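Input sequence (87 aa), recorded before submission:
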Amino acid sequence: MTSPQPPVVTLLTRPGCHLCEAARASVGRVTSGLGLSWDEVDITTDPELTRRYAEEIPVVLVDGVPRDFWQIDERRLARLLRERLPG
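Predicted structure, token format:
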């Protein structure tokens, strides 16, 4: 399902999270390989995000939808993003 806009990729993290370091590297590899950018959000800056995702960090959101957590599956993420690339 392609979209007229590139997918929005957000990585939810928190300080001191060792899995978050690996997730940053994984998301960075996948998005750079597809020419996409991504954002990182520290859940501790938002009480609602902390309440919702405290036990699942890191979480990758694609267009606002949670797609992976704890350990990021790079192949699955790449497939999801390719499906949403414009054109």
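Checked by second reader. The chain has a mean pLDDT of 95.
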